[in-house]
Amino acid sequence: MCGAIYCNHDVTRRGALKAAAGFAVAAGVDRASAREGGAEQPKPNAIGADAALRRLMAGNARYVANKPAHRDFSAGRAERTRAQYPITAVLRCADSRVAPEFAFDQGPGDLFVVRLAGNFANDDGLASLEYAVKFLGVPLVMVLGHSNCGAIGAAIKMVEDNAELPGHLPGLVQSIKPAVEAAKAKSATQSSRGRDHRKCHA
After folding, report:
1. Between the CA of residue 99 and those of 37, 45, 67, 140, what are the distances in Å?
2. What is the pLDDT of residue 7?
3. What DSSP element (H or E) covers 156?
4. CATH dotted code for 2-73+82-144
5. What confidence tier does 168 reach under pLDDT thresholds 50, 70, 90?
6. Is residue 118 within 8 Å of residue 95, measured between CB atoms?
7. Ranges 9-23, 59-73, 146-160: which has the least confidence
8. Position with higher pLDDT, 16 vs 130
9. Which residue from 29, 86, 115, 189 has the least number of CB within 10 angstroms?
10. Kind of pairing between the strands at 88-92 and 140-144
11. CB-side neighbour CA atoms (13 Å) of 90
12. pLDDT reading at 26 higher than 60
């Protein structure tokens, strides 16, 4: 599951929290040019959110087809030491199996990735997303989820079985717990309505 926020000049904390919950909101973006060295010059990432999203989806199609366009990750290394111009900021789980750069077939410097087990945004993650939008000029913020998440599974176990976890894991899972409880409540409501519906037609 993935969602996207189309950003203007700032990512608000409220908006980013909605993104972490899987919501998507849209707004216009105008980043046609930026002042560099006293002259108006377009930055490489001065594109609209729609254009950025199209690039990601085209890259993902190449990834699925196993026909990546990005193979030489050393290309442009010297230029990247001077500046970065990512086209998207991605909030992503820390799961090691798929990196966003591979999943969207993007090269180094194209994505600004914030990763945390459980795919949620804490204050540091929100600040990182705000930095990407405000100072790097990314036109698109995407929340990229995945199936079989271990952190989500741990949160479910904590809610359902009162499982105890070691170290700092309880704090991490505690941040995910409200979403698990909300999902369970919604599922219970839908199941109840389904039973009532069947009774009415019995």
Report:
1. 35, 21, 16, 18
2. 38
3. helix 150-161
4. 3.40.1050.10
5. confident
6. no
7. 9-23
8. 130
9. 189
10. parallel
11. 26
12. no
Is the pLDDT score of 202 beyond 50?
no
Q: Is 12 helix (H, G, I), strand (E, B) or coil?
A: coil
- Give me the sheet containing 111-115, strands edge to edge: 2-6, 140-144, 88-92, 111-115
101-117: buried (b, 16+ CB within 10 Å) or exposed (e) per residue? bebbbbbebbbbbbbbb
- pLDDT confidence of 18, banded at 50, 70, 90? very low
Residue with tokens 């309505």: 193
What is the reported pLDDT for 195? 53
CA atoms within 13 A on the CB side of 127: 3
Strand partners, 144: 2, 92
Characterize the bridge pairing of strands 88-92 and 111-115. Answer: parallel
Computed from CA positions of residues 132, 92, 14, 173, in that sequence, does the dihedral angle turn out positive or negative? negative
Q: Taking a C-beta distance cutoff of 8 angstroms, is the pair 11, 130 a contact?
A: yes
Q: How many residues does the chain have?
A: 202
d(C-alpha 48, C-alpha 63), whole Å: 23
Structure tokens at 42: 């377009």
pLDDT at 58: 96
Q: Which residue has the tokens 């105008």?
A: 30
The owner of tokens 């560099």 is 36
Tokens 């009532």: give the residue: 196
